[in-house]
Task: structure prediction
Amino acid sequence: MNLTVFEGKNKEELKEKLLKELKCEESECLFKYETKKGGLFKSESYVIKGITLNNVKNDIATFLKDLVTNMGLEVNIESNIRDNQINIKMFSNNNPILIGKNGQTLIALQNIVKQMVYTNTGLYPYILLDVENYKDKKQSNLEYHAKKIAKEVQKTKVDVILDDMNSYERKIVHDVLNNFKNIKTESEGEEPHRHIVIKYVEE
Result:
C-alpha cells in the first residue's frame, strides 16, 4: 500500500500535484497534510500523502483473501466504491464462521481491516465489510422490529428499552425512527452494554 508523497509551501498546489500524479478526482482518493517545521532560516512547509481508494480497495481484498484462506475457508470477494465508501462482500463455503455469533467475527474482521489500512497509510477510509447479505438482512430485520416497537410506544405511551447494540445497529434504529410522530430515541449505558430507549414525547 504505497503512498504518493509531495512536499511544498502551498497546500492547494500540493493537492493538485497529488491528484494529477494519482490520475483521480479528489473524491476518488485519500490524502492528508502534515506540517514540517522550518529551521532557523527556513519557513515551515507541508507534506501531502495520498493514495487512491481503488488501490486501497484492491489491497483490502487481497489481505482478506489471504486471511480467510489461512482460516481454512474458501472465499470469493466482490468489491466496489460508492459515495467514498469501500464496500467489500465475502462469499465463503462457511459463512456462519465468518459472521460469528451476533456478527462478532464480522465486526472483528472489519476492525482488523481498518487497523491494517491505518497502519500502512495513517488514513481511515470508510469501509463496509459484509458476508453475503448478512448486514442487509440484519438491517431490514432491525428496521422492521424498531418500527413495530415504536408503533406500540405510540399507542401505549410507555417507553421501551431495547437490547444492547453496537454503534452500527444503534445508528440504524435512530435513523429509521427519526421522523416517527411522537417518538424520540436515545442511547443510554456504557459500552459494551449501550442500548436505545424508544420514548414517547408529546408534540
